[in-house]
Amino acid sequence: MSGRNSLIGSPIERLEDLRLLRGRGEYVDDVVRPGLLHAAILRSPVAHGRIREIDVGPALALPGVHAVLTAADFGAAVPKIPLRQEPLPAFLPYEQPVIAVDRVRYVGEPVAVVIADNAGIGEDALEHVILDIEHLAAVTSREAAANDKVLLFDGTASNRPITLTAVRGDSDAAFRAAEYVRRERFIVQRHSAIPMEPRGLMAEWDPVNAQLTVWGASKVPFAVRRVLAGHLGLPVDAIRMVENDTGGSFGVRGEYYPEDCLIPFAARLTGRPVKWIEDRREHFLSTNHARDMACDIEIACRRDGTVLGLRGHAYADIGAYIRTNAVTPARNVAQVISGPYSVPNIHFDASMLVTNKTPAGTYRGPGRFEADYFRERLFDMAARDLGLDRLEFRRRNLIAAAQMPYELPIVMPYNSGTSCDSGDYRVTFDRCLREFGWSEKEKFEGQLIDGRYHGLGVGCYIESGASGPRENARLELNDDGSVSVFVGSSAVGQGLETAFAQITADALELPLDRVRGVYHGSTDYLAEGYGTYGSRTVVMGGSAILDAAEKLRHVIREGAARRFGCDSAGVTVAEGKALAPDGRVLTFAEIGTEMLSAEGTYASDKRTYSYGTHAAHVAVDPRTGHVQVLEYVSVEDVGRIINPATVHGQTVGAIVQGLGGALLEHLKYDEDGQLLTASYADYLLPTAAEFPKIKSIALEMHPSPNNPLGAKGAAEGGIIPVAGVIANAVASALSSLGVEPRELPLSPVRVWELIQAAAPAPAKPT
Predict the structure, then answer these.
(1) pTM of the model as a whole
(2) Of 103-107, 570-574, 729-733, the least confident
(3) Are 552 and 510 in contact (CB under 8 A)?
(4) Which end of the chain has a smaller Cβ tally under 10 Å, C or N?
């Protein structure tokens, strides 16, 4: 890149927002095709049971009903959902069929699909399907799953598909030599992403050309297409996935769900377009849940606070099946349990347990949110035991710049390793404390002021980004001299179009308005794409654009050289023009008549690691247990920043999501496997009004050495440390009462119960 433009690093307003704010976005429910039918899905009302009968006759007899699909319509082999990430043969027995065959394993599992003239008729028809299920004992806790008394899958010996193990150094030796050891148990509750727009799909089969089009693709359209092609017995190139505007994702949207097979299957069967739009209750019952992890963790230190080792065992409740990316949280919690700290000896196990709950997957900061909560809580406890200031305890153990690249533990059986790429973690730590005004606020710690106890919390984190293996892009020079950008990355609300336009314009030395459009996600645009997950979009997609831009400049030089009648080596390309050695000039508009284009690829298996520190000031009302966040400050270093405004918005939004997870949100089940919080009346979400004072600062002092942009993934970092920070602040506030939070969420009820449990019993009368 020449560097003559300066769009990268500028807080440019998001280009996509004007279209959306004017109501000109096109979401999947906006798409209408002639002859459209609608799908309604009958979901199991039972958490665990054997299907004795499904009688669809009464439903089929209703006017306006065109078909009612069950497992029988798929023949002898009902397709199962494979893992997209980290597949192993051990997981095969635990995969989910796209529709229940002879057994149901969670409330919400699809057992039949009604295809009708409209959604209302379809919903009415569900009431006429006769469903007879023999109830079986439900497994609804990690403890019940682990004892294996009720096995959820025939032919298996355990409800524990796998235990992953992360290893660095010799933890046993470290604990034997330690002067101080402490062991604790912490729990993160089940919760997940609640996007504004629930999932939706529309599929249309073209029998003449044997082509299937699916609208509503998101996150990983190419991966979904490959699985769908196998399930329907179609060539991959016979399926077209269309990415519409997406009203939020956060890791749960766009994975391969049962509906991703059922709706296209119904469209091909009926010969009519079929649409399905998830309602909010369906989202709670059927879209991936997340978190839900308990952890026994132990720390070994010297008396001066130097951490010698960490070891422990996490138990992840992954719900009824392993699907798509269910392994990722367990792998992450094992690999990043030490976070941004230099811990030479680690042995950490992470077991996955199946239960009769909705299957789990990834949600912003998967496994990292949990790991930070476990570690940062334990660090505060250890520092207090050792009589050390908790700030100095952390500062002493942060990874130093001289230690970069710093290797994290190897995770088995994958034998997967990774290294923090660059940074000076003490800089963001000290900057956060200054911005927060820690030294001035310390006087409030534990003080009862106007009926509320005040406390401070701090926590540090790392964020892994740039998931490989590669990404692709194509740039086209249009006949008006503008450039169109096509990328394999997906837009899930993160401002992709703006960031990629900035990268393209700088790479080609063009004004931003000469980037005609950024086209993303849909499988029409490129032969291969990898999508958006693992904080990868800017690094992987942006670097692919740089490669395509350099190749397009070469193609432009060659095209201009032909017109000039000179050697291409003598042609200069700058500011939308090609200049010959003798001074002649051709504009991009003149060259664009030749329909020039170039494709680029960026491949890498090296991760980037953003990092930072968060601090919070809370006030706790001991009468009600309510926790008010008075101030929250984050400082992070994200490498080279493409758009500061976008980074700021994503960070603040992520912090608010983290506050929801720390204080409010809970997908709670009863002993029969019924979800008790399946509506907004019961599942509490944060709002901007509740957390108004959030300050976020992003630095770019240490660009990544692992990609040509120097960028690092930055979409998830804001959520990762929040629970640990808030829990530490609550413990600080209630220190005089001896309250130690060990389980989330810190809802008013839970905090009040902790206060009551810690309060001394009233004296007995003599």
Answers:
(1) 0.96
(2) 570-574
(3) no
(4) C
Beta pairing partners, 473: 487, 600
Name the E strands within 367-482: 406-407, 410-412, 419-420, 448-449, 452-465, 470-477
Residue 112 domain-assigned?
Answer: yes
Does 527 map to a domain?
yes
d(CA 513, CA 274): 38
Total residue length of the chain: 766
Nearest to 560 by CA among 542, 574, 573, 575: 573
| Among 569, 603, 637, residue at a domain's last position | 603
Q: Please enumerate in sequence order all residues whose Cβ is within 8 A of that of 10, keeping only pairs 6 or more positions apart, or say none.
A: 502, 643, 644
User: DSSP labels for 534-597?
Assistant: TT-IIIIIHHHHHHHHHHHHHHHHHHHHHHHTS-GGG-EEETTEEE-TTS-EEEHHHHGGG--E
> What does the alpha-carbon distance between residue 458 and residue 432 come to, in Å, rounded to a whole number?
9
3-state SS class at 117: coil
Query: What CATH number did the domain enclosing 632 receive?
Result: 3.30.365.10
DSSP bridge partners of 477: 483
> Do 618 and 569 share a domain, yes or no?
no
Residue 762 has pLDDT above 90, yes or no: no
Last residue of a domain, one of 536, 571, 603: 603
Read off the tokens for 522.
């849909």
DSSP designation for 239: E
Do 278 and 287 contact (CB within 8 A), yes or no? yes
Over 50: is that where the pLDDT of 595 sits? yes
- On whether residue 430 sits in a domain, the answer given is yes
- How far apart, in whole angstroms, are the C-alpha atoms of residue 199 and residue 266? 17
- Model confidence at 765: pLDDT above 60: no
Q: Do 401 and 446 share a domain, yes or no?
A: yes
Which residues touch 21 (CB under 8 Å, ≥6 apart)? none
Residues 672 and 728 in one domain: yes
pLDDT for 496-538, tens place per residue?
999 999 999 999 999 999 999 999 999 999 999 999 999 999 9
Q: Could you list the residue range(s) of the whole structural domain that residue 558 is in?
A: 15-26+467-603
Q: How many CB atoms lie within 10 A of CB 95?
A: 17
Mark whether 575 and 717 lie in a shared domain.
no
285 contacts 358 by C-beta, under 8 angstroms: yes
Q: For 652, phi and psi rounded to 5 degrees?
A: -65, -45
Nearest to 756, CA basis, from 741, 737, 743: 737
In angstroms, the Cα distances linking 447 to 454, 629, 735, 752 are 6, 15, 9, 18
Region 702-711: mean pLDDT is 97
321 and 394 in one domain?
yes
Total domain count for the chain?
3
Q: What is the mean pLDDT of the chain?
A: 96
Q: Is there a contact between 545 and 450 (Cβ–Cβ < 8 Å)?
A: no
In a domain, 763, yes or no: no
Three-state SS letters, 127-184:
CCCEEEEEECCCCCCHHHHHHCCCCCCCCCCCCCCEEEEEEECCHHHHHHHCCEEEEE
Residues 341, 454, single domain; the answer is yes
Is the pLDDT reported for residue 763 higher than 70?
no
pLDDT reading at 198 higher than 90: yes
Supply the pLDDT for residue 761.
Answer: 57
Residues near 382 by Cβ (< 8 Å), separated by ≥ 6?
180, 182, 299, 301, 305, 393
Q: Which helix (H) or strand (E) holds 623?
A: none
**What CATH number corresponds to the domain at position 96?**
3.90.1170.50
Residue 480: per-residue pLDDT: 94
Segment holding 39, helix H or strand E:
strand 37-43
Burial class of 270 by CB neighbour count within 10 A (0 to 12, 13 to 18, 19+): middle
Letter for the amino acid at 335? Q
Q: Can you tell me which residue has the tokens 């798929």?
A: 74
> Which residues have a Cβ under 8 Å from the Cβ of 438 and sit 6 or more positions away?
391, 456, 458, 615
